[in-house]
Amino acid sequence: MKTSLIASAALLALIPLGAVAQDLTLTISVYAFAQDDFKTLVYDPFEKQCGCKLVVETGNSVERLAKMEANKANPVVDMAVVSMADALSASRKGLVEKIDPSKLTNFAKLYDLAKDPNGDGMSVGYTFYATSIAYRSDKMKIDTWADLLKPEYVGHVAFPNVTTNQGPPALYMLGLALGKDTPDLKGPIEAVGEKKDDIVTFYEKSSQLIQLMQQEEIWAAPIGRFSWAGFTKLDLPVAWATPKEGQTGGMNVMVVTKGSKNQDLALQFMDFWLSTDIQTKLAEKLIDSPANKDVKVSEAAANNLTYGEDTAKSLKLIPSAAALDNRDAWLKEWNDKVGQ
């Protein structure tokens, strides 16, 4: 028996540590966007560092959250990246675990709005974007979100449909400007409805705005900063507005699955993603705007990102609870008043 144990120990000693480490597998659920770049900049380097294997699942938020819920009793995903509102939805359904900031060495480097976006300790922001107004600076002046509905401007405006990512945030800021900032968005939806015949279009995709601006059919539209690069390439004086009410936008966050057997490894991966080095590489590639305040990027990259402490502080994001609790009401009110 003693000889057998010695032989077994000797055999184990011959097995490379990497072979044992490869048994560690972390399954992550992410957006399908820019996955080739994520593999090069994030996934492969982390696998090399941790000696583990990453399994990457992609899809839209609805599909990915549904899978997490279907496997609640026996999770198949260890960590996911979702929107703020989806993170709160997952939290309400008991799908995610509270995050211990002490296990994230880069937590202190995050902008304040990214440290605990929903105020429940269940998520950490890794990227965000601003939403403001792209406008023809030679045709109009934007001091407030309410300027979009001015008689002299409204006939040259494209407004996002309420079903798009930019719709509710734009309505939220319009409501602030009009002094009608209740979570049901009834005030701004009614105001838009009164001008619906003047507004050029209620757009579904920001890509269609470039052509409309180029053809001078529109002078202004609320857009996400990730769409801004296309406007800067137009041979027209297009500016990014800084209305007195501020800018709005959105944030994507990281969550750890409740019941995951790899929670520590999931936190290691989150911390790696939040590091200054990785966030800088993603920012320079114009993939994600950095949530890490220590990130420094080139002027060219900064012009196409939601970047800098002043910008981060100016963002007024729709509270996730308001979004979850009012989505159906927003759509009904929009259909009643705007009819799109």
From TrEMBL:
Recorded GO MF terms: thiamine binding; thiamine pyrophosphate binding
InterPro entries, alphabetized: SBP (IPR006059)
UniProt keyword annotations, A-Z: Periplasm, Signal
Keyword Signal: yes
GO cellular component terms given for this protein: outer membrane-bounded periplasmic space
Signal peptide extent: 1-21
Annotated GO biological process: thiamine transport
The keyword Amino-acid biosynthesis appears for this protein: no
Protein name: Putative spermidine/putrescine transport system substrate-binding protein
